[in-house]
Design a protein that fits this description.
Elements (H helix, E strand, L loop, with lengths): L1 H15 L2 E10 L2 E6 L2 E5 L6 H20 L4 H12 L6 E12 L2 H25 L1 E11 L4 E13 L1 H32 L1
Parallel strand pairs: 4-5
Antiparallel strand pairs: 1-2, 1-6, 2-3, 4-6
Helix pairs in contact: 3-5
Length: about 190
């Protein structure tokens, strides 16, 4: 009997204590490297074999079909956003982004510097709304006389089972509420006419 109690306590601790998921993303012109936990994926479009190209094409077709079947309406996304923003059990996150870019023209590179900083504030606001941010840094380096794009992003998301279940409940609740509101709007319009 004591073994079952120990197993039950262990499962309870796993579901409550958050564990980190490390994500690393690096893009350098034609080379893409993605690391999730201990698994590394490298993509280089020039080096792809026919078999890899077929797998990527099938994946793209499947993604397009699934997106057509599961379209989120603006109302559903709005309810999800509001519920996530007001949620107490947000997952924690750390993000470090290093971006080196250049378009071989100093004036355009300078304008892009201002636009990227401006867009970063909107991205930062949306991330702060959905996550408890422990650390968030952007290291932006413009190269004025080169044509280069180099993005390196390291992120750690702390999640646990309780927060994951809570997030799914919020999503389903938002979808249901949006469908209910849209049905009410349609019934009001038909009753008026």
């Amino acid at each position: 009997m004591s073994i079952w109690i120990i197993i039950l306590l262990f499962l309870l601790l796993i579901s409550i204590i958050p564990f980190p998921i490390k994500i690393y993303f690096m893009y350098d012109l034609d080379k893409l490297v993605v690391k999730i936990l201990w698994k590394t994926f490298k993509f280089n479009p020039k080096d792809l074999t026919k078999k890899q190209r077929i797998i990527i094409d099938k994946g793209e077709e499947f993604t397009k079909k699934s997106l057509k079947n599961r379209k989120f309406t603006f109302k559903q996304l709005k309810y999800m956003w509001i519920n996530l923003k007001n949620s107490i059990l947000k997952p924690s996150i750390k993000i470090n982004i290093q971006l080196t870019y250049g378009v071989d023209d100093a004036a355009v590179t300078g304008i892009l510097y201002g636009l990227i900083n401006h867009l970063y504030s909107y991205i930062q606001y949306s991330i702060y709304s959905c996550f408890k941010v422990k650390e968030m840094n952007l290291n932006l380096q413009p190269e004025f006389n080169k044509k280069i794009i180099y993005i390196e992003m390291t992120s750690i998301i702390y999640i646990n089972l309780v927060k994951t279940i809570y997030m799914f409940i919020i999503m389903f609740k938002s979808i249901h509420k949006a469908k209910k509101d849209s049905k009410n709007c349609v019934s009001k319009v038909t009753s008026v006419s």
